[in-house]
Task: inverse folding
């Protein structure tokens, strides 16, 4: 008997996924727990493994299509199971089969790729055309290599079975509208880069955030002398435990100190009132290169030591870049850090990760000449490692003064770092 591959529940709040890539095709052999396909939910790509070893008998949901938890994705069995009529999942109606003498019209249904001993491999193009014309592929004679059915075979079958003698043409997609109707002259060589699911998600969220809350920026400069000294003195000891002591861990700890001192910043807006969150869950914007960025969340960050924070930062960053995050690990954040300085940026105005109250941007670390004052009140010029902190906040929740109090606490924590 064939085994159904179902959409699993990938997180407590995950109800649907988008099929992004089939790693196996109909007719391919697959081993138990070998990746069968990739799905995307909330910018997290997840591989779904095969529940058993066998042959992929059918694929029920095409790439780019949304599926709900519990939907049938594919059937896996033995080659001998390929002759058994397998039902389509309840949410996908079967393509109607017209009699040979009928006039065939396109049918707007999802296509189930078919593969039996008689048919052999059926390409997605052939399956799509057969579905649009309501053709039973069991009735089509293949002229391709080894008797494989080609798209020309399907079109010829439709032509032969039409009763009105009308010309049959391959269905075509509607033309894609111009990307920009006002493109300048001489743009014939321009390239259109198709949006990835992640890029679409980022665009939608950033636009929604700008429309949701009034963004205000405040900036302070930080002397990182004590942080650098502390890191230099402890990084080897951390490394012996397998932990890379990065600056990000210090920034996250400083944010925790600021949020504890001013809990109103660890909040979200609602029409009933401001929701002040009891726990601190820190999001950490992580670049995935040209693919975009993702924000894994350190849950319970207010309970972590510097060592625990550094370990969590290492773990989430590594798994984010390896596409090994779980969907729940990018949800539930109450505040976000974006360390844009790693690429040389001095300061920026990041966009709030809704529904959070604010986001802190950390600029590039630079040695600069600054005025320092000694214990006797004398001023002098000195070279210090400096960076800018950019705090963007929701002006519905915070006013300038309360936002600056929070940012000043973050600055103070970094500048007066102690063991």
Result:
């Amino acid at each position: 008997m064939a085994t159904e591959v179902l959409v699993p529940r990938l997180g407590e709040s995950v109800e649907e996924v988008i099929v992004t890539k089939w790693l196996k095709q109909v007719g391919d052999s697959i081993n138990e727990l070998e990746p069968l396909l990739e799905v995307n939910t909330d910018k997290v790509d997840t591989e779904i493994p095969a529940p058993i070893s066998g042959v992929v008998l059918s694929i029920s949901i095409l790439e780019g299509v949304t599926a709900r938890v519990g939907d049938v994705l594919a059937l896996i069995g033995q080659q001998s199971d390929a002759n058994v009529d397998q039902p389509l999942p309840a949410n996908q109606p079967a393509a109607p089969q017209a009699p040979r003498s009928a006039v065939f019209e396109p049918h707007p249904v999802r296509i189930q790729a078919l593969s039996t001993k008689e048919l052999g491999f059926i390409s997605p193009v052939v399956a799509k055309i057969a579905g649009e014309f309501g053709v039973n592929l069991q009735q089509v004679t293949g002229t391709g290599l080894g008797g494989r059915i080609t798209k020309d075979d399907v079109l010829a079958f439709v032509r032969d079975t039409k009763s009105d003698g009308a010309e049959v043409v391959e269905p075509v997609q509607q033309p894609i509208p111009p990307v920009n109707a006002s493109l300048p002259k001489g743009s014939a060589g321009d390239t259109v880069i198709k949006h990835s699911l992640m890029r679409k998600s980022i665009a939608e969220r950033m636009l929604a955030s700008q429309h949701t809350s009034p963004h205000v920026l405040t900036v302070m400069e930080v002397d990182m002398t004590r942080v650098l000294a502390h890191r230099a003195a402890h990084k080897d000891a951390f490394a012996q435990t397998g932990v890379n002591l990065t600056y990000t861990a210090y920034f996250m700890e400083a944010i925790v100190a600021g949020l504890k001192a001013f809990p109103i910043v660890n909040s979200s807006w609602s029409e009933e009132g401001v929701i002040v969150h009891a726990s601190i869950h820190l999001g950490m914007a992580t670049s995935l290169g040209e693919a975009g960025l993702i924000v894994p969340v350190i849950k319970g960050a207010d309970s972590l030591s510097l060592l625990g924070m550094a370990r969590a930062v290492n773990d989430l960053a590594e798994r984010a870049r390896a596409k090994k995050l779980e969907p729940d690990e990018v949800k539930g954040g109450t505040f976000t850090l974006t360390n844009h300085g790693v690429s040389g940026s001095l300061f920026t105005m990041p966009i709030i990760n809704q529904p959070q109250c604010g986001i802190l941007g950390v600029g590039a670390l630079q040695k600069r000449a600054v005025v320092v004052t000694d214990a006797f009140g004398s001023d002098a010029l000195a070279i210090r490692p400096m960076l800018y902190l950019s705090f963007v906040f929701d002006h519905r929740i915070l006013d300038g003064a309360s936002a600056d109090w929070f940012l000043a606490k973050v600055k103070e924590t970094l500048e007066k770092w102690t063991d």
